[in-house]
Design a protein that fits this description.
The protein is an alpha+beta fold. Helices cover 37% and strands 17% of the residues. It has two domains: 52 residues, no CATH class; 85 residues, Winged helix-like DNA-binding domain superfamily/Winged helix DNA-binding domain (Arc Repressor Mutant, subunit A). Helix 2 packs across helix 4 and helix 3 packs across helix 4. The relative contact order is 0.15.
């Protein structure tokens, strides 16, 4: 396991990788005992995130290895299907996951998403379209959604 600190215009992020895949993105400088080294997968993640923040990248290709329950994995796959610049509600994701009443479980899966931004939990909103809950804070969620919408408006 290795970690790398990414400094971006939206703040600092700690990138963690293991066995050639990105496993975590943490908001801020949050490094534990992981050796600080820039493995090729971390270099790719840094380049892709910087391109995303600059509005030049809409789909990530860096190898991912998030760990979670089968339900969390299913939700994260559904999040990856939300188009860039668009949103879906917790209840919409729950219905697609097979249980329309599981919107709280979807919220929990989002909360436990180890790869925010790349697995775009920022695109999940309340049923009314309101911004609710985000590990990086609602200001960060708004900034990410605004970035994506501005790219779509230009494009």
């Amino acid at each position: 396991m290795a970690a790398w600190l990414l400094r971006s215009r939206l703040g600092d992020f700690t990138l963690i990788a293991s066995d050639g895949a990105l496993t975590h993105i943490r908001f801020g400088k949050q490094m534990g005992d992981e050796p600080i080294e820039r493995l090729p997968v971390l270099k790719t993640a840094e380049e892709e995130l910087n391109a995303y923040f600059a509005g030049r990248l809409q789909r990530f290709s860096v190898p991912l290895a998030p760990t979670g329950t089968p339900f969390q994995q299913k939700v994260w796959q559904l999040l990856l299907a939300i188009p860039y610049g668009h949103t879906a509600s917790y209840s919409e994701i729950a219905a697609k996951a097979g249980n329309a009443k599981a919107f709280r479980a979807v919220g929990s899966a989002n909360h436990n998403n180890p790869l925010p931004i790349i697995i775009p939990c920022h695109r999940v909103v309340g049923k009314s379209g309101s911004l609710v809950g985000y590990a990086g804070g609602l200001d960060m969620k708004q900034a990410l959604l605004s970035l994506e919408r501005s790219v779509i408006m230009k494009g």
